[in-house]
Amino acid sequence: MTHHAIIVGGSYAGLAAALQLARARRRVLVLDEGIRRNRFAAASHGFLGQDGRPPGAIAADARAQLMAYPAVTWIGRRAERAERTRTGFRITDAAGESHEAERLVLATGVVDDLPPIPGLAERWGRFVFHCPYCHGYELMEGRIGVIAASPRAMHHAVMLPDWGPTTLLLNGAFEPDADQRAQLERRGVTVEAGPIREIGGEKADVVLADGRVLPFDGLFTQPWTRMASPLAEQLGCALEQGPQGSFIRTDALKETSITGVFACGDAARAAGSVALAVGDGSMAGMAVHQSLIFRAAVQAEGEALPA
Ligand code: FAD
Ligand code: MG
Fold this sequence. Notes:
- This protein has helices at 12-23, 55-67, 132-135, 153-159, 178-186, 231-235, 274-294; strands spanning 3-8, 28-31, 72-75, 79-84, 89-93, 98-106, 110-113, 128-129, 144-147, 166-169, 190-192, 196-200, 204-208, 213-216, 218-220, 224-227, 239-242, 245-248, 261-263.
- By secondary structure, the chain is an alpha/beta fold.
- The chain has two domains: 2-112 and 224-304, FAD/NAD(P)-binding domain; 115-221, FAD/NAD(P)-binding domain, CATH 3.50.50.
- Strands 1, 2, 3, 4, 5, 6 and 19 form a seven-stranded mixed sheet that branches.
- Helix 5 links the parallel strand 10 and strand 11.
- Helix 1 packs parallel to helix 2 (55-67) and helix 1 (12-23) packs parallel to helix 7.
- The radius of gyration is 22 Å and the shape is elongated.
- The two termini are 20 Å apart.
- The structure holds flavin-adenine dinucleotide (FAD) and magnesium ion.
- The site of magnesium ion has 10 residues, from loops.
């Protein structure tokens, strides 16, 4: 077979998996469409040694280092279809070309579905965020608004006072009960019930339906995430439902419910970050390599992989 492993998704998780396999002198094909989840943000925070760098620069450096290994092939195209073969897996890409390998790694990430408030999507990653650990510090203890999109707004609203004075904007999406109101009060959170008309201004002014304008330095909301690619479903990988969307179930070695298919990064955990994607990807890469050695028996020519 041409490749030992095909990695779909060439961002942090996929790059980390590919690096381990390349260093194990295995032939790796990376298929990547290049649409990273954090492409809206100017700086990435919280990844050791790279704090505050542009997210694209971190990925570009990693890719350049990976491509220095001669056994890595990169195709900048979307993988459209995944299927099992008698000895491994076949991927068909957007150009209709097919690629086969003994192992498959899904590092395809997720897509954020944002609340449909006018002016919000344009500010995503600049003034509207979902992760306080990624973007809370840079607000420099300025005014923070939490736009409720689901009951998970409660979690945001109770955490965010550590980063600045916080207002919870219910916007008809969530109604705190008496206990929750008491909890919000203990954390000093202001609650605003009025519906939101739009987000405007230079930064993140919330314009309410009654015409009032509440200025904020940053807003947080709770997007639903969905998987960026249907490959896991096509293969029949078991999914798990997390608090913000479904993701691919894996074991501790990042193997899915389908033997030989591994998954890492945001696609395979309830909530992700660059550091966690890199950690998961490294684990997947090493586990793929070892499975190629220790599971050689089931790879025997003509013998189907067990489910
Ligand atoms: P991604 O980086 O999303 O990459 C997935 C890759 O797979 C993409 O290149 C995509 O095009 C490709 N792909 C998907 N499907 C296919 C297919 N079928 N065929 C080919 N290629 C495919 N985290 C931090 O740690 N710090 C931060 O400061 C931070 N800021 C963020 C800001 C915003 C606005 C957002 C939305 C997220 C932020 N995150 C941050 C989270 C971070 O973006 C993710 O945790 C991280 O990108 C996950 O890496 P990944 O490799 O799993 O997926
Ligand atoms: Mg991923």
